[in-house]
Amino acid sequence: MKLLDRVRVFLRRAGTVIFAVAVVVWALAYFPRSSDVEAASAAASAEATASLTGAALEDRLAEIENQAAADHLAQSWLGRAGQWVEPVFEPLGWDWRISAAVIAGFPAREVVVAVLGTIYAVGGEADDETLAGRLTAARHADGSLVFTLPMVLGLLLFYAWCLQCAATLAVIRRETNSWRWPVFAWSYMTALGYGGALLVYQLGSA
User: Fold this and answer.
1) How many CB atoms lie within 10 A of CB 115?
2) Rounded to whole angstroms, how far apart are CA atoms 160 and 152?
């Protein structure tokens, strides 16, 4: 088979999986939409429009839009999933927001920063300086900091060892013509990442 034909076969098989996963993650992060959030956002926008002008109005409207996106995400299926699995990741020092971002990042870890940017209401582009400030100030319900050094080091180790790439899984599936090896690779590498993050966080927080 010619090289071009092999490339086409790969793109068709792997690309189908990647696209399907991307659509699922988008749907989880977008639905369901909350009418209460929409109403609160509209009221805040109307109030800002009536009292502000120029650059101040633009900044306020952007802030309202970002906060609405964060509130929608918190009530989305992805946000609820993050809250549901929070007890599983709590020993790693993660809260529901980090858990939700990591869940969204399993198909492709590159989306984590964008998801964190939305969750912390700094917008989809997640300006580095603003996001860093929000992350530094983030706290658990008991008032303790979320992003401590042990937690961050554990999170980095989790990402170093965990298999978070739909393309890689698709390639394994393509080459082995079976889902057994992709599932095995994903399972043991996720367990390895979790164990490493747990060890680092618990030892660092002792």
Assistant:
1) 24
2) 12
Task: Determine which of 17-21, 139-143, 163-167 has the lowest per-residue pLDDT on average.
Answer: 17-21
Centroid of chain to Cα 158: 14
Reported as a pLDDT band with limits 50, 70 and 90, residue 1 is low
Q: How far is CA 97 from CA 84, 109, 170, 187, in A?
A: 11, 15, 28, 22
Q: Residue 62 in contact with residue 108, Cβ under 8 Å?
A: no
- Mean pLDDT, the chain, rounded, equals 86
Give the integer Cα–Cα distance in Å for 161 and 139.
Answer: 26
- Got the DSSP string for 99-155? HHHHHHHSSBGGGHHHHHHHHTTSTTTT-HHHHHHHHHH-B-TTS-BSS-HHHHHHH
- Report in angstroms the alpha-carbon separations of 114 from 32, 77, 110, 125, 172: 19, 17, 8, 6, 27
> Higher-confidence residue: 119 or 96?
96
Q: Is the predicted pLDDT of residue 62 greater than 70, yes or no? A: yes
